[in-house]
Design brief:
Low-confidence stretches: none
Shape: flat
Number of helices: 1
Helix content: 10-25%
Number of strands: 4
Strand order of the largest sheet: 1-4
């Protein structure tokens, strides 16, 4: 499990060449999880 939190001036999500969502200044959060991750992993990341 991985989480990346990044402060951005602008960010967008593009799928098949079309912008699906966009923000101006704010936080971009990338989150990745897999089936073997546990609730203990979540607790550790939250801290």
């Amino acid at each position: 499990m991985r989480i990346v939190i990044q402060r951005v001036n602008h960010a967008s999500v593009t799928i098949e060449g079309k912008v699906k969502s966009a923000i101006k200044q704010g936080y971009l959060i990338l989150f990745g999880a897999e089936e073997s991750d546990t609730s203990e992993d979540v607790d550790w990341l939250v801290k």
